[in-house]
Amino acid sequence: MKLGVFMVLFGGRKLEDALDYVASKGLKAVEIGTGGHPGNAHCNPAELLGNEAALKNFKNAVESRGLMISALSCHGNPLHPQKDIAKGFHDDFVKTVELAEKLEVPVVNTFSGCPGDHEDAKYPNWPVAPWPNDFQEILKWQWENKVIPYWTEWGKFAADRNVKVGLELHGGFSVHTPATLLRLREAAGEVIGANLDPSHMWWQGIDPVQAIHILGREGAIHHFHAKDTTIDPINVNKHGVTDMQDYTNMLDRAWQFRSVGYGHDNKTWADIMSALRLVGYDYVVSIEHEDGLMSVEEGFSKAVQNLQQVLIEEPLGDMWWV
């Protein structure tokens, strides 16, 4: 496996400066934002798709530093019930897939999206309880009329261009657990897989190692994010894991995102890396930084240090007893 980083945390730096910094830390891969919530500070698909020289220069900027692009990322909600909002996210996805094909980047990361509760809704509706029965009816309508049709069509669009779709399992979206990912994958095809982020598993009460086994046995892990989470044992009893407080209210929140090693120890992260290898994942571990207690540089550097201790980088060799 290769260690990489989600470049959105260096969005305030010029691309070349950010790439130099990443390479100086010994990383081998970058994941680059192309629109949606990550923004396109380092990569604007509309500009690159229409300019072959600019496209060549962009690719050379990465490769000349000994780096590869693990994924292009345009996380958004293409199923948003407000059509103009949905179109913006959808267009970002389409352009990103087209750019990934040209750059020979194998994965585009995004969210599954979350529809409203009926055709004329204004806001997304994320059902999280089976009763009252209204929620079950909403969930059925969303999946049958929005989620499956959209990803069946646009998953094929990506597959036809040799691009896989890595959906981040994130609360607030229709695909947020291993089970919901596999449900969509069964309906829309193997082009759909996970951009698996342990931090979103922990706060939902899911063991990331078991999530890796569940998805990995199906070949359904397309990309991997490295971010940690800590659960406050007191606040979680007050607010529950679906705590709706702002992320900046760190003292009172039930859980919060941390840099790798600051929510769970290196043994836990070593178990995660071993599980990835066990199920055959041999691609990129991409650091994501959303730690409100650390600066970008400190959080990134600490994550690199911790992951370099546990990452399994070498390919599998012959066993002496075989």
List the topology elements:
Elements: E1 2-6, H1 15-24, E2 29-33, H2 45-49, H3 52-63, E3 68-73, H4 83-103, E4 107-110, H5 134-159, E5 164-168, H6 178-188, E6 192-196, H7 198-204, H8 208-216, E7 221-226, E8 228-231, H9 235-239, E9 255-258, H10 266-278, E10 284-287, H11 296-310
Parallel strand pairs: 1-2, 1-10, 2-3, 3-4, 4-5, 5-6, 6-7, 7-10
Antiparallel strand pairs: 8-9
Overview features:
322 residues; two-stranded antiparallel sheet
Describe this protein's structure.
The protein has 322 residues and is of the alpha/beta class. The chain is built from eleven helices and ten strands. The protein has an eight-stranded parallel β-barrel with strand order 1-2-3-4-5-6-7-10, surrounded by five helices. α8 runs parallel beside α10 (266-278) and α10 (266-278) crosses α11. The longest helix is centred in the middle third of the chain and has 26 residues, at 134-159. The protein is globular. The two termini are 24 Å apart. It comes from Paenibacillus tundrae.
Question: Helical stretch count?
Answer: 11
Low-confidence stretches: none
Shape assignment:
globular
The rounded distance between the terminal residues' Cα atoms is 24 Å
Protein name: Sugar phosphate isomerase/epimerase
Pfam families: AP_endonuc_2
Keywords: Isomerase
GO molecular function: isomerase activity
